[in-house]
Amino acid sequence: MDFKKYLFLIFTIVLFSCSQKTLTINSSVKRIVYPGVVGLSPSVEYKISFESSSDFKIDALKLNTNEIKEFSLYDESTRKSISSAHVLKSGKYTISFKLENSRDIKKPEEVLVIILSNNKTIKKKGKIKTIEPLRLR
Questions:
Q1: Residue 18 above 70 pLDDT?
Q2: CB-CB contact of 86 with 50 (8 Å)
Q3: What is the H or E stretch that residue 26 is in?
Q4: Residues 6+ apart with CB under 8 A from 21
């Protein structure tokens, strides 16, 4: 009887060690950006840093329940802007976007990153942390 328990324990350890996290959100922050030109209204800038352990394509990006259609994607290793329309290699990336409504900066928000990897849809949520404003004036 003890042999079966040990065999089951070893099997579950091997099973869990083989599974990998494909998508990990490292950080997600937002801050108010006050523009350097007088008369322009401030905006809220969002930055989501994440990494993937396999090739992927970004399927969707949501802020709370609203889908974000326009965003910039940067490869953290080269610090260059890249297109999210193509299949991307595993690595670390940053998504950046701005919204005009700066009144709700204190409101807690969540970001949902949805990717397609190995013919599977993977969803990962992250809470957005507020950091100090950027004043360009």
A1: no
A2: no
A3: strand 23-34
A4: 53
Q: List the beta bridge partners of residue 50.
A: 25, 93
C-alpha 125: how far from its chain's center? 8
Per-residue model confidence as pLDDT tens digits over 64-112: 989 999 999 999 999 899 998 889 999 999 999 999 877 778 888 999 9
Does the pTM exceed 0.85?
no
List the structure tokens of 122: 């993977």
Residue closest to 91 by CA, chosen among 123, 118, 51: 51
Do the strands 23-34 and 120-130 form a parallel or antiparallel pair, or are they unpaired? parallel
The terminus-to-terminus CA distance of the chain in angstroms comes to 74
Name the DSSP letter for residue 39.
T
Evaluate whether 30 touches 45 at the Cβ level (below 8 Å): yes
Rounded to 10 degrees, what is the CA torsion of 37, 41, 49, 76?
-20
* Amino acid identity at 121: T
